[in-house]
Amino acid sequence: MSSALSTNDQQRSTHTPAALIGFAWTLVGVPLAYGLFQTVRTALKLFTG
After folding, report:
1. Is the pTM of this model over 0.70?
2. Is the C-alpha dihedral spanning 31, 34, 40, 43 positive or negative?
């Protein structure tokens, strides 16, 4: 009986709205992309002079 309750609890806790997932990826992805761009830009200066 307790395993059935824990399965129901797990199913409820895994539902996340798609908009929230998109917002979270944007919140993390934009600074990450900017940081990678700046790193590559700086590294190119080191190797090209």
Report:
1. no
2. negative
State CA 42 to chain mean position distance: 25
Half-sphere exposure (Cβ direction) of 26: Cα atoms closer than 13 Å? 6
C-alpha to C-alpha distances, 35 to 7, 24, 26, 44, 45, nearest whole angstrom = 40, 17, 14, 14, 16
pLDDT at position 49: 75
- Over residues 18-40, mean pLDDT: 97
Q: Which amino acid belongs to residue 28?
A: V
Q: How far apart are CA 8 and CA 4, in angstroms?
A: 6
Alpha carbons 29 and 31: distance in angstroms, whole number: 6
Which single residue is written with the structure tokens 């790193």? 39
